[in-house]
């Protein structure tokens, strides 16, 4: 006697639709949306049951190789939700939206960000890549435009001329990054998800997200590495 997956209702469908059109939705917004969908479609609403509501949707998305995934913003540690396509690697998915030369710029930017110390790449460094692309050289002006589009489409985010991967990109590309950057991509020692913007222990090399660093050391009298117990030499955010 197999347990039947809970029924998809109009509320579930509405929720999924909005999530897909947003690309990514912050946790408190997702909770509001959950309530709105249930009330609009007269479906039983329980405020603490968002995860169950989402897993019902996920059980119906499974045959389509899609999934709503939860991830954490590296800036402030807040939960976000994004719909992820499991059937194709994200770079192939991006291929339907961008030209080959734009994708090459994106991949090179991703290299810079992932190989950097702190998870950021400066616009100067990225623009210097633009005239070394294999597909064809890209003018700086053109490259600036493309970067702007990547920010609008939530693949990159930008602060004061420094670029990093957007939360949406990290949620969607986590598997891709972990398998393609095996030697350098690290998981956060605290929450175990991929850490791009992170602090790294000088002694043993583990990394932690900044919000996780903040939370972890809040309770400690002096900051010591959770793995090797050496003094944590980075500035605590």
UniProtKB/TrEMBL annotation:
InterPro entries from the UniProt entry: Nse1, Nse1_RING_C4HC3-type, WH-like_DNA-bd_sf, Znf_RING, Znf_RING/FYVE/PHD
Cellular component GO terms held in the UniProt record: chromosome, telomeric region; nucleus; Smc5-Smc6 complex
Protein origin, superkingdom: Eukaryota
E.C. number: 2.3.2.27
GO molecular function terms noted in the UniProt entry: ubiquitin protein ligase activity; zinc ion binding
ATP-binding in keyword set: no
Main EC class the enzyme belongs to: transferase
Subcellular location: Chromosome, Telomere; Nucleus
Alphabetical UniProt keywords: Chromosome, DNA damage, DNA recombination, DNA repair, Metal-binding, Nucleus, Telomere, Transferase, Ubl conjugation pathway, Zinc, Zinc-finger
Catalytic reaction equation(s): S-ubiquitinyl-[E2 ubiquitin-conjugating enzyme]-L-cysteine + [acceptor protein]-L-lysine = [E2 ubiquitin-conjugating enzyme]-L-cysteine + N(6)-ubiquitinyl-[acceptor protein]-L-lysine
Domain RING-type: 188-229
Gene3D superfamilies: 3.90.1150.220, Winged helix-like DNA-binding domain superfamily/Winged helix DNA-binding domain, Zinc/RING finger domain, C3HC4 (zinc finger)
GO terms classed as biological process: double-strand break repair via homologous recombination
Main localization (coarse): nucleus
Pfam families in the record: SMC_Nse1 (PF07574), zf-RING-like (PF08746)
Keyword Oxidoreductase: no
Subunit organization: Component of the Smc5-Smc6 complex.
UniProt function note: RING-type zinc finger-containing E3 ubiquitin ligase that assembles with melanoma antigen protein (MAGE) to catalyze the direct transfer of ubiquitin from E2 ubiquitin-conjugating enzyme to a specific substrate. Involved in maintenance of genome integrity, DNA damage response and DNA repair.
Similarity comment: family membership: Belongs to the NSE1 family.
Listed name of the protein: Non-structural maintenance of chromosomes element 1 homolog
